[in-house]
Amino acid sequence: MGGGAIWPPYPGILGEPGGEGVNFLGRLCGPDLEYVCMIAKVRGWIVRQLTLGHFATRKDVVRRSVILAAKISLLALCLNVVLEAFMAEMGLLPYAFADALKTIFILSPTISFIIGTTAYMVVGFAIYDLSRERAAYEQMSFTDELSGLANRRAFLDAVEECDRQDKVLILFDVDHFKVINDTYGHPAGDAAIIVVADVLRAVFTRDAIKARIGGEEFAVLLANRSLAEGMALAELARMRIEALKLELPGGQINFTISGGVTDLIEGDGFTCAFSRADRALYAAKRNGRNRIVPALPVADEAFDLAEDARHTGFRDEAPGAARKAAR
């Protein structure tokens, strides 16, 4: 190194007497490191409490604080008795041991319990508030803001994780949604989305996950239902929406939905199930809209694809893209 440079650049970094490096390393590996470790332990403990749900409700906070404070009080009482007995044995007590025991049994549990309960409740309610904020954030990350239903991510996870027995997948699409937006404005489109979401919540009340998976696209995953039951519920939702009138500043309008229904098959993933329901939905659009169509059996899908390709010329096109053209 030229120019009279001295190595190492920080005097004492390797331990030269009087150098700042030793102090620097001492600070780094001493109290600072202990502080970092302590913070890491506290953070780990808080994460465990959030995961275990020990402070999930206000009642849990109070109950757990009382239990922990009682344990601390008992421990403090035992330690005080042992300490006083030791001091009495050594002749260091300025008063009688019996008087010391009376004072210990009166003051030690009381003070320890009050301090312990207060401290644990302060920490517990902080964790409780944190858990509520965390739950609200998780809820927001899996919820569609406009409709209040599950979003596409949450719905996809639910389909991928569930078993395939007695499960039905339904896809809905608002008919002529672009016309509603273009004619009456986007607030009208938003109102239509909210109406559909309300109807889905009212119709699919048991063992069902309702989601908005796209602009005007909705999906429902039914559990413990047959394909026929899924068709009946989807038809009920369609009829209710058809009978409703959407209230707008300029008057009332009617709108409809179309739907495709399929049952889940053992071994197929979300893509396969979605594709079958999507083809059924496209068939509903192609045949006049405002109807619910069941998916073809798997054995008939190849023929259906060939027919679609021959009539519409979208052999290499995704069914969703072809369906959008039919809206």
UniProtKB/TrEMBL annotation:
SUPFAM superfamilies: Nucleotide cyclase. The keyword Transmembrane applies. It catalyses: 2 GTP = 3',3'-c-di-GMP + 2 diphosphate. GO terms for biological process: cell adhesion involved in single-species biofilm formation; negative regulation of bacterial-type flagellum-dependent cell motility. One of its GO terms (molecular function) is diguanylate cyclase activity. This is diguanylate cyclase. It is an enzyme of class 2 (transferase). The chain crosses the membrane at residues 66-83, 103-128. The keyword Membrane applies. Its EC number is 2.7.7.65. InterPro entries: Diguanylate_Cyclase, GGDEF_dom, Nucleotide_cyclase, Rev_trsase/Diguanyl_cyclase. It comes from the Bacteria. Residues 165-297 form the GGDEF domain. Keywords: Membrane, Transmembrane, Transmembrane helix. It comes from Pseudohoeflea suaedae. It holds the Pfam family GGDEF. One of its GO terms (cellular component) is plasma membrane. Signal peptide: none annotated.
